[in-house]
Design a protein that fits this description.
By secondary structure, the chain is mostly beta strands. 6% of the residues lie in helices and 43% in strands. The chain contains two helices and 14 strands, in the order ββββαββββββββββα. It has a six-stranded antiparallel sheet, with no helix packed on it. Strands 6, 8, 9, 11, 13 and 14 form a six-stranded mixed sheet that branches. A two-stranded antiparallel ribbon has the order 3-4. One of its GO terms (biological process) is polysaccharide biosynthetic process.
Amino acid sequence: MELIETNLKGCFVIQPKTFSDSRGALTKVFHSPTFKELGLRVDFQEEYYSVSSKGVVRGLHFQVPPDDHVKCVSCLNGSIFDVVVDIRTSSPTFGQHYSTVLDHRNPTLLYIPPGMAHGFLSLEEGSIFLNRTTTVFSPSCDSGIRWDSCGIDWPEMEYIVSEKDQKMPALEDYNSPF
């Protein structure tokens, strides 16, 4: 696996190796010894996936302390426009974001440290998003900011946004505990 730095400290793109032959392909998306060697956390406690229609926006989500966590995300089918926003008030990149396209045809992971809001836009019908976290989902620590409040240049299309995500506070109105 290759670790690629982003403009946000502690947020990395992970490029795993894919092995292909006449039968198809195999990609290892987690390998504890390699993650440890790269200085990444390996104590993941929960993993889930979502299936989204084209145009679905999910986010920008995070968990606040004491159940904040590292996320390691990837796209298993289709493609997503994936975004991370730094909400660590003492960070020199506070309020800045990193975006990339995660596509199952070019397997890539995004490693997201605590103190960052995360979200994505499904670019295709039936995109499958995989999320691995170092803490279990905690409703009392669940939080977020509005997906359209951070200066992100989202791909233009008809957006489908949940009522919950529409009601999130804007970044400028959010009092970050990070």
